[in-house]
Write a structure and sequence with these properties.
alpha+beta; four-stranded mixed beta sheet; globular
Length: 307
């Protein structure tokens, strides 16, 4: 499937744009599931100024979708209309600052930030080692793992809204809740400032090693997966509800509920996005029937289904 090419019209309106624009760019290669259709137009900005310029000149009727490392994402088979924005190298710097602080670009992998904190003897950020994504996703979803959450360590976040305006949010301004934040969806996060505490690099390294070992033994991290599929409902563990509903190992097409950790869906090879999403909805239905609990997707699903 291909979309109408909107690139020439946009380039004519943005003579000072420095970032890369690619029409009908396949998105499957950018997702951990390795499924899905194309972006009508993919934009990779050079830096925050370039992103701001692009958004300020983009016609408001053109939808904008943001993707990160693609670790918690299903791109539907029909692709994504409008512009898909993916932050690149200009947003990936990580630096340690005074008073046990870490400043990180939104495209920096969470694990890179955890390691930078370890190198700087900053404690409190090791939990980021357990989140398979980038800082932008952690900001948007209040990413957490192994007893820590983004809200626990964030000082402030920086972003650009749909009009190209630079926005800064302090921790209360993020309006965090479980796996969610209250910042408007049209804000694209570009940077975060985190607060840790002075620590012992050896102790921090040992904590990160424990997290790594736990992930490798309890999660299908070597499979094509999207990470944790459903949020934990209040008072419950999603995986236990899924297991009790008899869904461990359940398959639809080449998509399967992981035998190792049943809150993970995997692409065994050749699955479509529809296979994976249908499997997830089947799991939700069975859990609802057996427990009365409504599971909520944690994986983000974007684009349109193939007609």
């Amino acid at each position: 499937m291909t979309f109408p090419d909107i690139l020439p019209a946009l380039k004519a309106q943005m003579s000072q744009l420095r970032g890369r624009l690619v029409p009908n760019q396949a998105l499957a290669e950018f997702t951990w599931f390795r499924v899905g259709g194309p972006a009508q137009l993919l934009f990779i900005p050079e830096d925050e100024e370039d992103l701001s310029y692009f958004l300020a000149h983009l016609p408001h009727q053109i939808p904008v979708t943001v993707i990160g490392l693609g670790s918690n994402l299903i791109v539907r088979d029909g692709g994504v209309p409008g512009v898909v924005i993916r932050l690149g190298r200009g947003f990936s710097d990580v630096t340690a600052e005074e008073d046990a602080r870490i400043r990180a670009g939104a495209a920096a992998p969470d694990v890179k930030v955890a390691r930078a904190a370890q190198d700087a003897a900053i404690s409190g950020l090791a939990f980021l080692r357990g989140i398979p994504g980038a800082i932008g996703g952690a900001l948007r979803m209040n990413g957490g793992a192994y007893g820590g959450e983004t809200k626990d360590v964030l000082i402030a976040a920086r972003g650009v809204d749909r009009t190209g305006r630079i926005c800064i949010f302090n921790n209360p301004g993020m309006r965090y809740s479980y796996r969610d934040c209250g910042v408007p969806d049209d804000v694209i996060f570009t940077e975060a400032l985190f607060q840790g505490t002075a620590g012992d690099p050896a102790v921090i390294a040992a904590e990160m090693d424990r997290i790594t070992e736990s992930r490798e033994t309890t999660q299908p991290i070597k499979s094509r997966t999207g990470g944790s599929t459903f949020k934990n409902p209040p008072g419950h563990k999603a995986w236990r509800l899924i297991d009790a509903a008899g869904c461990r190992g359940l398959t639809i097409g080449a998509a399967q509920v992981s035998e190792l950790h049943c809150n993970f869906l995997i692409n065994r090879g050749g699955a479509s996005a529809a296979d994976i999403e249908t499997l997830g909805e089947t799991v939700r239905s069975r859990v609802r029937e057996t427990s009365g609990v409504e599971l909520e997707w944690e994986i983000k699903r974007i684009g349109v289904k193939r007609g």
